[in-house]
Design a protein that fits this description.
The chain has 1 helix and 8 strands. By secondary structure, it is an alpha+beta fold.
Length: 174
């Protein structure tokens, strides 16, 4: 059974105005909800063209540097060891690295039976311009792999992590 809406002549005086006011509010609410989600969808759909840059790594003194060329990633990770170590800074080169749309993966070379693997995604951070700190973020899982000398087995430490891009004046260029 199909129910028909009453025509204006069938409505009691004043009843049509309430109907129009209610439907007007409903229409306005729908427009507001749709426009807000449209802006968010537009921001989310902004594809990040290039992730080349420097990022904070695990500790404050560590740095991840990435150069992206046609979906391939090159670069290094500098890890501060402390004054008591023979090598104050270890530089791990990226030996494998790819980016497909928002997905990012890389693996470093081994130094002292240790290397790093990362798998995650790139997204916009809180910075508004490329020169701002936290303009880009790499969000995902970092694995610190240590190879045991006696057995050759890999011990893997996994952590959820966010690498935030460095701002223009935040660290000196090499």
């Amino acid at each position: 059974m199909v129910r028909r809406l009453p025509t204006p002549s069938q409505l009691k005086p004043g009843h049509g105005g309430r109907f129009l006011k209610r439907s007007g509010w409903l229409f306005a609410a729908v427009v507001v909800l749709c426009s807000g989600s449209g802006l968010r969808a537009q921001r989310d759909s902004d594809e990040i063209q290039d992730i080349t840059g420097k990022y904070h790594f695990v500790s404050a003194d560590d740095t991840l540097a990435i150069l992206e060329e046609e979906g391939k990633l090159k670069g290094y990770i500098e890890v501060y060891q402390g004054e008591e170590e023979s090598d104050v800074i270890l530089s791990y080169d990226l030996v494998q690295g790819t980016r497909t749309k928002a997905h990012v993966e890389f693996k470093t070379n081994k130094i002292h039976r240790k290397y790093y693997r990362f798998s995650g995604k790139v997204e916009r951070g809180r910075g508004h311009e490329e020169s701002d700190s936290d303009y880009l973020r790499l969000v995902g899982v970092l694995e610190i792999v240590t190879i045991r000398g006696d057995s050759g087995e890999e011990a893997v430490q996994r952590m959820q992590i966010i690498f935030k891009s460095l701002g223009k004046g935040e660290k000196k260029e090499d």
